[in-house]
Amino acid sequence: MKEKNPWHTPVTIIITVIGVIAIVALVTVAVLQNRPLPQKYKYGIVLDAGSSHTALYIYEWPAEKDNNTGRVEQTYSCKVKGPGISSYASAPLKAGESLSVCMQEAKQRVPGRRHSQTPLYLGATAGMRLLNSENSSASDKVFQAVEEALQKFPFSFQGARILSGQEEGAFGWITVNYLDDRLKQGLETKGALDLGGASTQISFVSDNYDGSESPDNAVTFRLYGNDYNLYTHSFLCYGKDQALRMTLAQQTQSGPGTINDPCFHPGYTESRNYSVLYDSPCVSDRKPQGPPANFTHIGTGDFQQCQEVVKRIFNSTHCKYSQCSFNGVFQPLLQGPFGAFSAYYFVMNFLNLTDTSIPLEAVREKLGHYCATPWNQLKQQHPKVKLKYLSEYCFSGTYILTLLTEVYNFTSENYPNIKFIREIKGSDAGWTLGYMLNLTNMIPAEAPDSPPLPHAGYVSIVTVIAILLLVLFILSLRPLWPLCSKRPQIV
Ligand SMILES: O=c1ccn([C@@H]2O[C@H](COP(=O)(O)OP(=O)(O)O)[C@@H](O)[C@H]2O)c(=O)[nH]1
Q: What's the whole-model pTM score?
């Protein structure tokens, strides 16, 4: 007679079915309870009011993670048409109006239900620093007009202000290291080199700088549980546009009617106005007495001589510290990798020189060749580039190389540590992201507590434990097994 399988008795089957249902219920509850909620986003808007132009950036991050693990990303940028807001000193209302196209675009891009909670900041840099230093009431009027224009939008406007050079340097450094994930992971940080139109910033962490020598250059942070002593300095007037003015001022000190400028291409000839050239606090005190109205600016295209002229705008005669970059400003020993952005990138990218594995000697040679290219030939090669920009790349490239190697002291050994970057993971390198992260408290001082297990690990453990419990439960019913599996009596 066929023996009946002892496990096929009704009681065992019922116990097993109930156990399986219990496990499925337990795992379902665990999965549902811990399922990530549908993603909601928050937004922030920052306007970078630079000396040459204004740009608007929209940032986005997951709503439930805004104070610790969430990644903030730039989702949109808009270049405001026209010059920087400092150029509207004589017509301040136009400064406000100029922002409206980009602001309308931001209104479309940020979901309507989030408008009122979206912070909007405007930060102005060296252009407004200069205007404020020479005419503070004009600078106030520009801010008033800009604030009135921005308040008309449905965002949470948090004010317009001038960033100090130190803030500009430090927030640029935070942006670069945040986007590189170096802060959260406590990795070696990257220095930040920022070149604007009116100022330039250098910021890095160096083992030989604890802030005691030249404390004015120190910014200390505690981020994600790590302490940083950042060295930072902003050189007002040493952005590439003001540096060009200073270089031209050097060459027009005696008020000549013509100058032969090695930083411009052979064949380049332009008539320039003395009053316009000297209309900036960076050069106004050097204006020659009784010059003619104009001078003829003639290019000779000689990189070596251009470098000599550029070097003259850096004063390295006095230094009361252990070492200085220039103008008596302390600078510790360069250390670590560097990201060079803003005009550093625009210029080196145009010149095809962003690859820092090209030896410095070869970079100089290429630049020499570029500067010597006749102006007419260059115009034919780049018909779409604005002539003003095209004419200045020889100067700008020479300025960048001189600043990096002769002033900051990058050598053949550590020049390859520099990376010319425009953006990191889709977000532009610059001070705006760091500024917003700081004002919205999105970088905690201490490392956030992370859950001990990831979601998948948690569900697996719950499942394994539930199965073990079922097996134990079935085993605990052993006394009943003989009853259940009683062999049929053969009489
Ligand atoms: O596509 C671009 C955008 C900007 N620039 C230059 O980069 C500098 C950026 O200056 P910005 O106004 O941003 O800086 P600030 O002086 O306020 O720091 C200026 O010299 C611009 O002419 C450039 O060469 N290409």
A: 0.87
